[in-house]
Amino acid sequence: MPVGRLSNAFARAKAENRAALVAYVMAGDPSLEVCAAILDALPKAGVDVIELGFPFTDPMADGPSIQRAGIRALKNGTTLRKTMALVAQFRQKHPETPLIVMGYLNPVETMGYDAFARHAADVGIDGAIIVDAPPEEDAELRAAMQASDLALIRLATPTTDAKRLPAVVAGVSGFVYYVSVAGITGDKAIETADIAEAVAEVRQASGLPVAVGFGIKTPEAAARTAKIADGVVVGSALVDVIASAHETGGDAAMAAALFCQSLSQAIAQAR
Amino acid sequence: MDARNSWGSYPDAQGRFGQFGGRFVAETLMPNILALQQAYEEAKADPSFQETLDIFLRDYVGRPSPLYFAERLTEHFGGAKIYFKRDELNHTGAHKINNCMGQIFLAMRMGKTRIIAETGAGQHGVATATVCARFGLPCIVYMGATDVERQSPNVFRMKLLGAEVRPVDAGTATLKDAMNEALRDWVTNVKDTFYIIGTVAGPHPYPQLVRDFQSVIGRETKQQMLEREGRLPDALVACIGGGSNAIGLFHPFLEDESVKIYGVEAAGHGIETGLHAAALTGGRPGVLHGNRTYLLQNDDGQIIDAHSISAGLDYPGVGPEHAFLKDTGRATYLSATDDEALEAFQLCARLEGILPALEPSHALARVGEIAKDVGKGGIVVMNLCGRGDKDIFTIANALGAKI
After folding, report:
1. Number of structural domains in chain A
2. Residues B223 and B184 in one domain
3. Which end of chain A is flanked by fewer CB atoms within 10 Å, N or C?
């Protein structure tokens, strides 16, 4: 019941009157081994949903932090298959925490849509965000994902106008990812006042929880976002914490866990 | 549907040329891309748009460009007559300005106030900087740091024209990385910014609108050839990076089945070495920069860096319409190595008194064989799409000369 894991996580957060914490890390960064340790540490640190990036050479919607993480991952030999192997390893100890993968279409096309969906379901992935597959281009992917009972999570953005929103939320499951700023990941800081209305509209149109991401770098920003969103996504800031711990010889998994705990606590007290 | 009778009907409403093309971009850009498509359709239906464009193409760009009979090269190869379509004589020295002129008018129609572009060899960057200077719009050009170094004359030209050149260090620091960075800029500045893409790639409608703006090359060629020889040529030849000069020459001839069509990709150090930029010859279909096309990529779908002495051909993909022309068999795609291009460059300089850019030097490297294949009495037209002034440092370096 992969979609079930995602809905359960958002339902539990809602029952506790808080937003869910969605944490993004890049598969194979800083290494496959350390990444496995990081994944292992996240559920206990208060992470409700894991978003696992799989690397691509040309991440055209990502800012410098995630670009660099992708380059490190590729240098470590990380592939989409190895990303899935990481998830299989994670699932042995963590049967409940939902995990979705996020990346670009070409590695998925290369594997084949059906093979991707089947393999993903087999290892315990709950869904996927494919950044460069907008509704106009994702019919084949959507069919393959549905056949394997996986959630296809789409991005809604400040440029998604009222005319376009119904098409964006049609056929989605799990949750909707609202990109808080028009821009690349980790770029501008979030302005929560501007987005409350948009988040409510997306929630209304989709009937799904709405997680907000892009530009949430601190526990304070996470808390502000948690007041208006069903989920708070932290990506670039976490990737930076991991990179700097690893580069200075520290314990990247510990650093990631501490940072996520601070986010989780801030979110829990936000409302 | 038999594509052979309906080349003009592509792309379809979804921006597809068969399985190629499309709009594979982040959601943030989708509304912009749809707005661009609408603006372009409105512009096409407005006669004053084309009239204004034609005046600037004539008086500012210098069109029509001559169709020149390359008599000494023809004698040298001893086959069909070789003609050059001399788009290197355009203002700014290459075919790129044809497209920039069209897109700047679109940008102004759409009320955009900031222009961005990517560039490889710098020709598209210079052409974009030129039209921005002419119409008073701020211009930012993304250029791979490697290309900034090897095309320094063009970097200086862009700066003289008032453009800001932003070097891109990511990846191999060449054209594909410049395009990634331009897309990141666009995604961040969607409201006021117009992205002038320089080749027939990217998300729909770019492959179509760049093709349409470049098709002036083929339309003129057809008319000039009928005036001069009273018939169509037997073969067309052009170099292929993204493929904008080539599609510009080819497209008006697609339905003339007697005309053979040859594209020449950059084989770098040789296809067998893996160090090349020949996506059609040595790649397979995938998705990059907003469209599905042939790409250089590994088994995991990661893009492999392209290699070519020519910065303008140093790209791991190719325009989706070329992918379609390859798969349907309408066009034949060959390749030429760095060394072959250098040799052809020198031959053209000595026999015709023309310094071609390194990009069309790749087409030149195959034109002799094609002329022989067509045979005496036949006619071959090659698009001499750029001049070689920008390349003299690269060429001096490759030939071991000091300047």
Report:
1. 1
2. no
3. N
